[in-house]
Amino acid sequence: MNGNITFTIIKPRAVEKGYIAPILNMIHKAGFKISALKMLQLTQHEAERFYAVHQGKIFYEKLIEFMISGPIVVSILKKENAVEEYRKLIGNTDPEKAEEGTIRKLYAESVRENAVHGSDSDETAAMEACFFFSEADRF
Ligand code: ADP
Ligand code: MG
């Protein structure tokens, strides 16, 4: 059975451009409930830990630089089959390839500055949620 939580980040450029509310509105309209939410700025060390799985890839260093460049919004979202449903809502990693009406198609600048993060499995969703939120911060 698939899990009912996923984890998302509204990335620095989308926050800077004023897209927090429009993106949260799309999340709401797609039937997700917000279980936890906060705004913060990552340190270099936190960003490196969060994206450890991408260490060594060609885009890794610039990705870290981008992710610490300004405040972000992190959130745990609830819905049946949340991981898959949210990946559908955000669209392809590369906004040029993202389907019409997806968050990345509407709000991403480029493959790096692609507006949002979404977990890729139930296991990573659980880990990413714990990375930012204690049990007491989750509703
Ligand atoms: P996704 O966020 O769709 O799960 P990945 O996990 O493969 O994508 O990559 C993590 C993040 O790294 C992407 O969201 C994007 O910000 C950045 N990224 C991925 N591929 C590239 C690339 N080819 N060039 C620049 N940045 C990239
Ligand atoms: Mg990923």
What does it look like?
With 139 residues, the chain is an alpha+beta fold. Helix content is 40%, strand content 17%. Strands 2-3-1-4 form a 4-stranded antiparallel beta sheet. It is globular and about 35 Å long. The mean pLDDT is 98. Adenosine-5'-diphosphate binds next to loops. Adenosine-5'-diphosphate is lined by residues 54, 59, 63, 93, 111-112, 114, 117, 120.
Question: Topology of this protein?
Answer:
Elements: E1 5-10, H1 12-16, H2 20-29, E2 33-40, H3 44-50, H4 60-67, E3 72-78, H5 82-90, H6 103-107, E4 116-118, H7 122-132
Antiparallel strand pairs: 1-3, 1-4, 2-3
Give a brief description.
With 139 residues, the protein is an alpha+beta fold.
List bound small molecules: adenosine-5'-diphosphate, magnesium ion
Q: How widely separated are the two ends? A: 22 Å
- Uncertain stretches of 5 or more adjacent residues: none
The main pleated sheet reads as:
4 strands, antiparallel
Radius of gyration: 14 Å
Strand order of the largest sheet: 2-3-1-4
Specify the helix fraction band: 25-40%
* Number of distinct helices: 7
Question: How many distinct beta strands?
Answer: 4
Strand content: 15-25%
Query: Averaged pLDDT, please?
Result: 98
Instruction: Give the CA-based shape.
Output: globular
